[in-house]
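Here's my example:
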Amino acid sequence: MQQQWSDIDAYIESHLMPEDPILTQTLQNTADKGFPDHLAVAANQGMLLQMLIQMNQCKRVLELGTFAAYSTMWLARALPEDGYILTIEGRDTHAALGQENIDNAKLKQMVELKVGRAADILKSLPENFEPFDFIFIDADKQSYPEYLELSLKFSRSGTIIFLDNVIRAGDILDEKNVKPSIEGIREMYRLMQNHPRLLSSTALQTVGSKGHDGFALAIVK
């Protein structure tokens, strides 16, 4: 089934994903540096992020987990020219690659990349830091509960929170699987259930070139 899922994604992308030199350049440079592309979002997933930002006229975006900044490009291309992205990456090698790709892209929007553990960086931000309109969480899964709570501190009413990779090929249902990453996702679901700061939330499982996974989506009350 994996080959068929990948072929269908390729079909979708060939019809609905416009050619973009910045995105192509980012993928090529990432490959040239020897990094795997499976750590980045698929193009159709990137388009979904872009559309959510466009539909809600977002201007300020927080991204946890930069990797090569491919998803950052999708987020940026949806923003107005005075838009702002704060993207945070914990691994030095990934951050260096991400910054290189951001610099090469020469984006009109302001993209600020901070290196370090996302929770520590968020805790270091001033209390009066302007809230974000859209938050994309695609970092270490064991920290998702903490990232969710911290994200709410930098949200406003109507902020959209998008958490990637929350199905893990169904591993969340395997009671014998107690890996920190899986336990973190389970705790994330428990937090999202009837959370007093969330207006509504859901999760969707997906199949495609990235295998069987999915994402969670929430709107801040």
Notes: The helical segments are 2-16, 21-32, 43-55, 70-77, 92-105, 118-124, 144-153, 180-192.
